[in-house]
Write a sequence for this structure.
């Protein structure tokens, strides 16, 4: 009997386990302070959905600096830790260089250091008024008329505003210590709550919202009793105290209104009116409108009942500010426990998402795909089986990770895999890798694996850049809100995209081997041709069925099966191109090489219908249209054109080699 | 002999080269037709590229030349090519069931598309909360209408469609108590109020208005000011005067013929229904704290005096009301969520795409699955051997 415990197998499995451990290191919470970890798990409501603070921190930091973490005096700082500092210690966070400015003209305009790429709020603050003045006039222009410079100005203005709003999203940014601030407000209730009961002071039914009450408090004077200042002079002590109380209360109301508007996120669901024990305390903790902290604070001033979350947040932030680490952790845990008891659904949703965030699954599989592509590519050069084996393990682990991430995402969102452009990029990669692995099983020529690693890597890079635009788990627009159609039409179409890219990249491999390869036998050529042909057939089925399902969806929701709208046309172009390839092959227009060149052109068609049509709406003639995504798309197309031209060169130009 | 010629012709018509050329032309047409939407808007592009035999290019010298085949021409050639291919390649045999299904399905799909473009009608029904609608309006096409009141509650309307007005120079009918001579028609026009115009022969509002042609609207929210200059003749042939009637003129103009007064105007083409729809309530939900729409819905009361049907229906996203050959979709809203706009679609060919696509999809799957099975068998043998 053959023993499996060989030296080689031990080395191999150790390596495999090592890769997996590296991939899931986020589980052990490495590199994130405990306070930030707790803070990141707290559930909030923002962009219309419940999420952990960690998600908000990441998407904000991505928006500011295009990265999910920042660097402070040479040390890496996680997004949660950054946001925790923003809300607990504004003075320090103002000095963090998180605003990325690439546009040289913007730097020039504000006399910023040319060589720097990241700037702090402190550096940008002096220019705020100028920025505001410009932005207001730019905003009046139509988006298509704005120059690139103007759009960058607008973005920077928006970023600074968002930053300032974040600072005051929990407690006003000028409140250094939150506990004493709450005590002070609590004292107002103790001193003046009688005003609100209407038993003292004014006999008029008192409403703090109405500023008119201050004037009414002079009710014991007859009408037309001289001038106003004469009246105040005659006020009794009690009247004066009442007036003082009304002033304080109206100040609380006004500032609360202001901070409610400022708050980027909301921290707690409102309790149901007259809730009784045994009945559901909150209407719907996931879909109802939550309240910002400022509202809860004001409510406690007027009712004397303080929401425990308010005090817990205050002591947590204060302890973080004072660097009482152990106390901060203690109050943070208490706060989490409070959420767990009061709103368990929202709590667990946020907790899961925070875990998903810190795993950074898609980032890690991106790295593995890159290593895999390098490994498999190198195995051809050095002709070493071990190198190929390593590359294959990387693909397997990366694919496994991607599946886990995809399922995780679907569970968190309760949606099919593709819900927006970001998730379509992730899914295209996933399917392409799967198809490539199936190809490898059939042909065992390493090509399927190599191409899937390359596509997996590129699509995840694309996904990362798309995630900069905001929340990747955003809520669905009404018209898209149909899990049935999302899971049928959208998924099929996206599978079709994957197939197109797989065929196209195999086409590139063919062309490269044809021109640069040392030994590309006729048999190898035929094999590669068969692979591409098979995938093109698969693509025709998937893209046709997907497009038809889209037509049926359109017929169900708008009453027309087909409307020649850009997105529909994009899908149709892919179908036509696949059909054309198959018919032209039969007609004899395309021989082996022509078919490969056509497959490479399929890359352009697919990229255009995937991203190109989304850019159409912005207007072809504007500078805004030349945003970075468009530049990348054009670059991608140009690379494809290069390979197509290469593929069309006469074969006699090919250096003679052993056939 | 005849048989031989026929089969020769069929072989020629079924040529794969024709197929490839058609597919390529369609590819180019769809691509250009997508880019063209940026400057011409979706409606005009549809008309120019996809609902015509040729795409015409205005040379600016007073005539147009066709620059590429439109979808109607390509579609027609494809139908012929497909029929011939099915005939000559014997695609209807059991052996080629998959291929046969997908190609027959393709013919059905093209025929269905033709029926839809020829007979499908789309219009909008805007209803305010609490109000009842009896008709819907076209968003693109207009009509000339003459209204005369029969009594205090009833009106009689004489309606002439834009299409008829654009294609004829004289409107004459037994039912029409007068004759209309069309002096000039502007599909879209600039209207300008001026005093120094030699318009003395024009009666009514047109006297002080100068009309200049304007390119057709490209954006969905723009209106075409369809304008006509007409002379009205009484039944004896005598002229009653010349008028300028336009979509851009808010007020109606009056003409009196044989002691009956008619209010004339141009309005959106109307489609009347034998049933009424009353909007009871419109709701528009957003996700908490955002402007992202979560749901739009209209609660309507359907009332059909002919069939006696009376029921409440909730029309919302992906859930239209289908009734008597018409489908009502939630399309838009306005006026602080008190006005709901329903898209009304009448499409007699709506089942064809379903049937044809089912056939094609099934045929594709069948054909390629059989091929895949054969291939994987071969491959397995090869790996073993």
């Amino acid at each position: 009997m053959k023993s499996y415990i060989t030296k080689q197998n031990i080395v191999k499995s150790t390596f495999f386990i090592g890769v997996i451990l590296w991939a899931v290191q986020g589980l052990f919470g490495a590199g994130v302070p405990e306070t930030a970890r707790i803070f990141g798990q707290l559930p909030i409501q923002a962009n219309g959905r419940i999420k952990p603070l960690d998600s908000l921190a990441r998407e904000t930091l991505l928006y500011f600096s295009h990265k999910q973490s920042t660097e402070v005096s040479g040390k890496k700082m996680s997004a949660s830790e950054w946001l925790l500092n923003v809300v607990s210690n504004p003075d320090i966070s103002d000095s963090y260089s998180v605003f990325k400015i690439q546009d040289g003209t913007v730097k020039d305009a504000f006399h910023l250091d040319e060589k720097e790429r990241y700037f702090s709020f402190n550096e940008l603050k002096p220019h705020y008024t100028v920025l505001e003045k410009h932005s207001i006039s730019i905003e009046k222009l139509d988006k298509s008329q704005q120059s690139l410079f103007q759009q960058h100005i607008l973005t920077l203005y928006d970023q600074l505003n968002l930053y300032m709003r974040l600072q005051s999203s929990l407690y006003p940014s000028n409140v250094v210590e939150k506990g004493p601030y709450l005590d002070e407000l609590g004292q107002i209730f103790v001193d003046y709550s009688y005003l609100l009961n209407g038993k003292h002071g004014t006999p008029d039914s008192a409403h703090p919202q109405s500023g008119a009450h201050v004037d009414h408090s002079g009710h014991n004077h007859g009408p037309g009793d001289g001038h106003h200042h004469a009246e105040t002079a005659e006020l009794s002590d009690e009247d004066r105290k009442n007036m003082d109380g009304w002033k304080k209360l109206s100040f609380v109301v006004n500032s609360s209104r202001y901070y409610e508007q400022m708050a980027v996120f909301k921290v707690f669901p409102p309790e149901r009116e007259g809730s009784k024990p045994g009945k559901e305390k909150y209407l719907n903790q996931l879909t109802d409108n939550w309240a910002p902290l400022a509202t809860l604070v004001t409510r406690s001033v007027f009712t004397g009942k303080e929401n425990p979350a308010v005090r817990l947040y205050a002591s947590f932030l204060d302890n973080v500010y004072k660097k009482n680490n152990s106390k901060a952790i203690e109050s943070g845990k208490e706060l989490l426990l409070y959420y767990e008891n009061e709103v368990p659904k929202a709590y667990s949703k946020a907790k899961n998402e925070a875990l998903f965030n810190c795993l950074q699954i898609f980032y890690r599989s991106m790295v593995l795909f890159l290593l895999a592509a390098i490994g498999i590519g190198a195995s051809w050069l050095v002709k070493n089986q071990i190198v190929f084996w390593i590359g294959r393990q990387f693909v397997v682990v990366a694919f496994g990770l991607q599946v886990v991430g995809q399922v995780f995402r679907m569970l968190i969102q309760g949606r099919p895999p593709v819900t927006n452009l970001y998730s379509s990029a992730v899914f295209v990669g996933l399917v392409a890798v799967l198809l490539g692995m199936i190809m490898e099983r059939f042909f065992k020529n390493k090509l399927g694996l190599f191409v899937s690693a390359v596509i997996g890597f590129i699509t995840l890079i694309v996904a990362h850049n798309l995630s900069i635009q905001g929340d990747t788990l955003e809520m669905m627009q009404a018209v898209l809100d149909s899990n049935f159609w999302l899971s049928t039409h959208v998924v099929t179409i996206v599978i079709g995209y994957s197939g197109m890219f797989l065929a196209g990249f195999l086409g590139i491999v063919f062309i490269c081997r044809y021109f640069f390869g040392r030994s590309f036998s006729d048999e190898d050529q035929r094999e590669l041709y068969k692979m591409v042909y098979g995938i093109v057939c698969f693509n025709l089925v998937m893209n046709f069925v997907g497009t038809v399902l889209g037509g049926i969806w359109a017929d169900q929701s708008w009453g027309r099966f087909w409307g020649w709208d850009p997105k529909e046309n994009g899908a149709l172009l892919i179908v036509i191109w696949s059909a054309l390839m198959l018919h032209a092959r039969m007609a004899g227009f395309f021989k082996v090489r022509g078919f490969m060149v056509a497959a490479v052109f399929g890359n352009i068609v697919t990229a255009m219908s995937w991203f190109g049509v989304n850019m159409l709406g912005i207007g072809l003639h504007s500078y805004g249209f030349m945003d970075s995504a468009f530049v990348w798309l054009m670059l991608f197309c140009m690379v494809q054109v290069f390979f197509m031209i290469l593929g069309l060169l006469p074969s006699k130009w090919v250096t003679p080699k052993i056939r | 002999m005849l048989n031989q010629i026929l089969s020769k012709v069929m072989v020629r018509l079924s040529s794969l080269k024709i197929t490839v050329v058609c597919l390529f032309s369609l590819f180019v047409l769809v691509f250009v037709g997508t880019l063209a939407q940026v400057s011409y808007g979706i409606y005009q592009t549809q008309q120019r590229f996809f609902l015509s035999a040729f795409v015409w290019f205005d040379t600016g010298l007073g005539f147009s030349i066709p620059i590429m085949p439109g979808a109607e021409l390509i579609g027609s050639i494809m139908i012929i090519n497909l029929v011939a291919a099915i005939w000559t390649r014997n695609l209807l045999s059991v052996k080629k069931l998959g291929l046969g299904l997908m190609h027959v399905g393709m013919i059905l799909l093209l025929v269905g598309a033709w029926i839809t473009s020829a007979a499908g009608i789309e219009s909008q029904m805007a209803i305010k909360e609490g109000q009842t609608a009896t008709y819907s309006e076209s968003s693109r096409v207009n009509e000339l209408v003459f209204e005369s009141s029969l009594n205090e509650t009833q009106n009689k309307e004489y309606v002439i469609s834009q299409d008829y007005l654009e294609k004829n120079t004289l409107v004459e009918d037994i039912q029409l108590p007068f004759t209309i001579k069309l002096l000039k028609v502007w599909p879209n026009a600039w209207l300008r109020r001026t005093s120094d115009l030699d318009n003395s022969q024009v009666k009514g509002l047109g006297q002080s208005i100068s009309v200049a042609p304007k390119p057709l609207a490209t954006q969905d929210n723009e209106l075409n000011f369809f304008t006509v200059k007409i002379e009205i003749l009484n039944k004896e042939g005598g002229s009653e005067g010349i008028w300028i009637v336009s979509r851009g003129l808010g007020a109606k103009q009056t003409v009196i013929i044989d002691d009956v007064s008619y209010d004339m105007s141009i309005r959106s083409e109307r489609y009347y229904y034998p049933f009424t729809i009353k909007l009871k309530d419109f709701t528009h939900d957003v996700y908490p704290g955002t402007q992202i729409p979560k749901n739009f819905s209209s609660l309507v009361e359907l009332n059909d005096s002919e069939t006696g049907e009376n029921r409440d229906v909730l029309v919302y996203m992906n859930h239209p009301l289908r009734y008597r050959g018409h489908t009502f979709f939630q399309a838009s809203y306005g006026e602080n969520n008190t006005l709901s706009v329903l898209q009304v679609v009448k499409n007699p060919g709506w089942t064809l795409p379903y049937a044809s696509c089912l056939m094609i999809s099934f045929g594709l799957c069948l054909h390629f699955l059989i091929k895949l099975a054969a291939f994987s068998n071969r491959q397995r043998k090869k790996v073993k051997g």
Summary: The longest strand of chain B covers residues 260-286.
